[in-house]
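INTERNAL AUDIT FORM
Audit reference: QA-55
Scope: verify that the stored structure record matches its stored sequence.
Auditor: D.O.
Record contents follow.
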Amino acid sequence: MTKLYMVSLGPGDYELITLKALKALKDSDAICIPTKSSDNSFKRSMTYKIVKQLMDEYGFEKDIVPMYTPMRFKQEDWQRQVDIIFDSFNTYDKLSFVTLGDSAVYSTVYYLLDIIKEQKNEVYEACEVIPGVTSFSHASAKVKKPLCVGDSSFLIRPLHKSKVPFTTVYMRPKIGMETQKVKEKGSVYTFENLNFQGEQILDFKKENVDKYMTLFIDFHEPK
């Protein structure tokens, strides 16, 4: 059965990979690794270095599928990577595609998944996205300073633009709170008890908070 893992490797230190990501790599038949080199070499690839360190330390070996990835943000580049994934499934049943940092933050992963969903929905449905440690979380830990504490919040913005669309995360609710202040600008999801008993993920905003461990995300929807 076809299985695609989108694996986040963290911010450059192979020891910051999650156990879930490591298990996915070990479960895969091959690992798709992006490279900026047009000859498909990995001389400048930090991603390859991390995967190689993991294979050496944890005693496993996988076939490597190079994926030329110029940083041009063009549709044809993403399509070429998707084509390589599709072609690779002619040889392998389980693939991992790896990305630095966390897949949810400025990653190639969702450009590829949008195309995969449109062209081969069965591969999309069998795909699992595995989150990772972000660079800013790691940077915060390095200097022992929180990104947010108490009732403060923090922003992530691209430096090269002043006005940008945004996704909003709402945390730290109180049981019984009404959610009128969560203004829907995109698609609001409600997450309750993530990874705990009674986990529930709803593709709408609940009107009242029933559980302390509730998270609302208003996802920006690209047009």
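Auditor finding: record pair retrieved intact. The radius of gyration is 19 Å.
Action required: none
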